[in-house]
Amino acid sequence: AQSVAQPEDQVNVAEGNPLTVKCTYSVSGNPYLFWYVQYPNRGLQFLLKYITGDNLVKGSYGFEAEFNKSQTSFHLKKPSALVSDSALYFCAVDVSGSSNTGKLIFGQGTTLQVKP
Amino acid sequence: KAGVTQTPRYLIKTRGQQVTLSCSPISGHRSVSWYQQTPGQGLQFLFEYFSETQRNKGNFPGRFSGRQFSNSRSEMNVSTLELGDSALYLCASSLRGRFTTNEKLFFGSGTQLSVL
After folding, report:
1. Closest approach of A101 to chain B, Cα-based (Å)
2. By Cβ atoms counted within 10 A, which residue in A10, B66, B74, B115 is the most buried?
3. Mind listing the pLDDT tens digit for each residue in B55-107?
């Protein structure tokens, strides 16, 4: 079955330190991978997406993600965390493949807490 | 450009009642997807509509239904409400639901449904 896993429920970092939020996937075929962020009482906001090509994807708000095919991972990173980055982060994968039917499978989410 | 708009923002219903939620996609977007978000199950795909046709459906009982109108606006209906239906219902839109391209999902802020 196709799935996405975020192994950490919560990640705590100090402001100014680098952060990593982990994501691994299990899909058949080429994966189309996403990161979204959710602030309290809000919908999800798009951060970045991997389609093909460069393994390092740059996104919004200084975030980037590294695609690793051999480890089936797509970890989210930021060189220097801000308190305002504290939120719920979701990794997602497109499972519709050639059927193109707009369905994403989401991980369980990781709460990022950045302390001043 | 206006974002994805969901109404109402909050709803309180009692068991056995039915409810209709509304979603207006971003102008020009023809694919509308619905997701249910709960603390225990995370984000789960309900269904996706494109040009008034349901193209994909998640693993939810038949009490959950939806439709899309010719202007791409969408509604979802839940009949015979159960306590477990309490959740944040998120609507998302994209141009055509083709994530093998540069397309991405844009989410609304959601409708928080509480079933008493």
Report:
1. 5
2. B74
3. 989 999 999 999 999 999 999 999 999 999 999 999 999 998 877 677 888 99
